[in-house]
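Researcher: Structure prediction, please.
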Amino acid sequence: MTQKVALITGASRGIGKAIAEQLKRDGVRLLVPSHKELDLLSNRSIDLYLEALTEAVDILVNDAGINRLGDFTDFSDADLEDTVQINLIAPIRLARGLIPSMMRRKYGRIVNISSIWSVISKPGRLIYSVSKGGLNAFTRSLAVEAAPYNILVNAVAPGYVNTELTRQNNTELDLSNIRKMIPMRRLAEPEEIARLVAFLCSEENSYLTGQCLVIDGGYTCL
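Model: Predicted structure follows.
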């Protein structure tokens, strides 16, 4: 993938960092804007960032996301608006800004990082599940429109991944119980998610589009 340019959001830690490192090893030149450069909560910031780009982007990986837990009757308007903005609206706006150039060049790869909570759910995940379910629908719809231009659009839905955020949201006892519920008896490593994303971003992927690929060690099979 030498000579390709990738824009990755959420690349400072966790899965996004692993994706950036994998693509860099594959020879991709990275654009990994900081929060100051690209504030996904601000549509104005997104528009200004896109306007300031001076080079064509071949690959877009929408990894940045937030997951605010809370019962249906407890979450605030701000929780709802911020979650939908970062997890769904920002990816749509970034893709809308970048895809015209991809269409002209007849090449593009877009990967949206979704979640198993887009296909299953549990208490406290309502707004997160809604945002990621919407991201899956966006993936399918854009894939249909972009396919004639050799632009492939997919989503990856990780299960439990061994990241700092997962450890923050779960106690050691929680994690022990979670491992017992996963058929492979362990959490995924960020690098395992990154390798799947790298394939979807590469020219080796020449026909797979419009899919949400669940990578969860068999968790959602139960």
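Model: The longest helix spans residues 77-105.
Researcher: Thanks, that helps.
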